[in-house]
Specification:
The longest helix has 18 residues. The N and C termini lie close together (8 Å). Helix content is 28%, strand content 34%. A four-stranded antiparallel beta sheet has the order 2-3-1-4. It is built from three helices and four strands.
Length: 106
C-alpha cells in the first residue's frame, strides 16, 4: 500500500469551504480511480489566520496512483478554483510505502 500526501496552506477562515470544494473535486477523483483505498483531509492552525492543510490518500500501488495523477505522479494535481483558496502551490507530493498499522487496507 502507498500513502500519497500533499500539504499546502490556506486561510483558516476558508477551512470549511475548502474542505467541501476538495471533497467534490480531488476526493471524488480519488474515489473514482481504481486502486484508491480511501482518503482524508487534515488541518493544522498555524496562527495569524493561516492553516496548513494536508490530503492523505491510500492506494494499492504506484500503478493506481498513475491512474489518478498521470505519468508524473510526484507532481501535485490541482483544480480550477484552487487559486481562490491556496496561499501557495507546492509543486510536489510525497509517496510513502505503508509497512505497518491498522488504517485503510486493501
Amino acid at each position: 500500500m502507498i500513502l500519497r500526501m500533499w500539504t499546502g496552506r490556506i486561510r483558516t477562515a476558508d477551512e470549511a469551504e475548502y474542505a467541501a470544494y476538495i471533497t467534490a473535486t480531488g476526493g471524488a477523483a480519488y474515489r473514482a480511480t481504481p486502486g484508491n483505498l480511501g482518503w482524508q483531509m487534515v488541518f493544522r492552525d498555524l496562527g495569524d489566520g493561516v492553516s496548513e492543510v494536508s490530503t492523505l490518500s491510500w492506494w494499492t500501488g504506484m500503478d493506481a496512483i498513475h491512474g489518478f495523477a498521470g505519468p508524473n505522479p510526484e507532481v501535485a494535481v490541482y483544480y480550477p478554483e484552487d487559486d481562490r483558496f491556496l496561499l501557495d502551490r507546492p509543486p510536489h507530493v510525497e509517496h510513502r510505502r505503508v509497512v505497518a498499522g491498522d488504517g485503510p487496507s486493501g
